[in-house]
Amino acid sequence: MYAAARTRRxxxxxxxxxxxxxxxxxxxxxxxGGGGTTTTGGGGAAQAPxxxxxxxxxxxxxxxxxxxxxxxxxxxxxxxxxxxxIEEAVREAGVDTTVSIEHRDTESSPQSAVQAARQMISGGxxxxxxxxxxxxTLAVAESVASRQRTPIISPSSTDAAITDLDDDGFVWRxxxxxxxxxRALADTVERELGGTDFTLSLAARNDAxxxxxxxxxxxxxxxxxxxxxxxxxYDPEQPxxxxxxAEIVAGNPDAYVIIDFFETYGKMGASLVRTGxxxxxxxxxxxxxASDRIPDTIPLRALAGARGTRPGAPESGATVEEFARIYRAxxxxxxxxxxxQHFDATMLCYLGALAAGSADGAEIAEQLxxxxxxxxxxxxxxxxxxxxxxIAAGEEVDFDGVTGPIDFDDNGDPTAAxxxxxxxxxxxxxxxxxxxEASAAER
Length: 443
Hints:
alpha/beta; Rossmann fold; 2 domains; 7-stranded mixed beta sheet; ABC transporter substrate-binding protein
């Protein structure tokens, strides 16, 4: 087996904090957070896996209903595409592993996510791709992952609190932490406004994603010399938000930063429009409100013209282009934020199992850092069969995802990310205006 390459995370977060956290929630072949208390490096002396003839079931936790339902079908499709690529590469490489996937709807709910995770593990799943919301990941981490010694790899849970979870090394993510994106958004607002001598009205849904993101954004903006009001934190379960909307627009701020999901923002956006003072062209937001177009449940005037950031994939390169091609060819759900991250998460479940030579969750978790980063032979899903042969031969490998190098750190976070800056047009269609790279090492 591969030598273990990752220290256990022992930075404790109280169980109460985990229960209270509610929601969160976005390479070509070229070279391309959070800090634990100790590090061990990126790999160790490799040995040939004991067995490559095991059967692996990957559990897919996707939000097909609820707040994050726009992300669910594209996520499920990406996971299925990853399995198809794995099956083809397994045949080409001549190994005997059998891989299958089981999908479950988390309903964008922590309780449902925990139930779905338990059911899939009881049914034989040894690694889970997902869940998506930070609230779900916090709940599954506390109640399922470490207790049942089964790794989870979230494609989209960005809450910074996940970095320091006391999870015994069973919680990972292919999406960057909000420690990184909050500063990336602050940099974007500064560039878009032409400076920082502005007052921003801050607001967010009152859960792990919203509260965590907006507080870190406020710190980043004020460190730049900018001014803020708020944040206005609102309960996602409220029927309307008229008083909160009035507070957000009070004082005619230079711009707004609102962190939310579509279902809740449908109500908040309507309340903002009713104030008669809200201008969506002055709104900045993030990945939770990024979709191919503004949903019908949100008034166009509440989001058209808004700008934001979201994790993405490099703009060009053979890996990115081939993923786009196979995604289009498969039909069905259109592209969505975090679809490539979910593809990568599913791939890593399999590669971790192959490196372990086992469908045992604890052994898979021990290999995820080793297969995701240097040292070792670099490969993408375009060379998946070669990567499988290398692992089977006991060689060290470094898998680069569609989203770029993943290079998990000791806390299970990717150490760099590609961000897209997007804007909603007057027609409600999202258009990406530019991309940039951000690295935890630069922060």
